[in-house]
Amino acid sequence: MTAAQAAPRPLPAPGAWRGVAWAVRRDLRLALRSKAELGVQLLFYVIVATLVPLGVGPDSVLLRALGPGVLWVAALLASLLALPRLFAMDFADGTLEQMTLSPYPLPALISGKIAAHWLATGLPLVAVSPLLGLQFGLGGDELVVLALGLLLGTPTLSLIGAVGAALTLGFATARCSRSWSCRCTFRS
Q1: Which burial class, exposed, middle or buried, applies to 187 when counting CB atoms under 10 A from its CB (0-12, 13-18, 19+)?
Q2: Measured distance CA(133)–CA(155) in Å, rounded
Q3: CA gap 20, 89 in Å, rounded
Q4: Using alpha carbons only, what angle is made at residue 23 by residues 20 and 24, rounded to the nearest 5 degrees?
Q5: What is the pTM of this model?
């Protein structure tokens, strides 16, 4: 190993956009390693959107009326499937603590994690939605509006879901520590 290779690398210049970019790259790389988890969410979305027309029947007027709502509800439910892993793995292995100590601003890192979550989970739902809208009998303009609506709405689902994921992560931690302290109190 040469002296240049052994020398510590300089710290990156702290900045909000660099922190966002770092978190997006990191989380996308991690998400692409676990393709099965991403596939489960997309498969769930496709199955829900496919089973509803089979259950409703061949009434084209009813299918056109129900289609956008069904696809939105399916997108909401599919996004809920991926939310627990948004912070849980980083919390379990201590990465969240290391992120708070990094030179990047913490809001930038969290924003990057949320953006990567949407790119890995929300964007595929948006991409598949016009194809699924065809089975509801939606026309070209309706499919464009549906896709644009999901393109604007799924990031919001990721943002709101990130708050919920963070709160439930803290709740689970508090519940564990509270039960541990209760056991210690009763034993003494």
Answers
A1: exposed
A2: 20
A3: 19
A4: 85
A5: 0.79
Nearest CA among 80, 78, 75, 74 for reference residue 152: 75
Query: H helices within 57-136, ranges in order?
Result: 60-82, 88-92, 95-101, 106-117, 123-134
Structure tokens at 129: 């939605």
Q: Are 70 and 136 in contact (CB under 8 A)?
A: yes
> How far apart, in whole angstroms, are the C-alpha atoms of residue 188 and residue 167?
32
CA 37, 40, 41 angle in degrees (round to 5)? 95
Residue given tokens 């595929």 in the structure block: 124
Cα 173 from Cα 19, distance rounded (Å) = 26
Q: Which range has highest mean pLDDT (31-45, 92-106, 143-157, 166-180)?
A: 143-157
Task: Please report which helix (H) or strand (E) contains residue 178, including its range.
Answer: helix 140-187
* The predicted structure's pLDDT at residue 75: 94
Q: pLDDT tens for residues 46-80?
A: 999 999 988 888 888 999 999 999 999 999 999 98
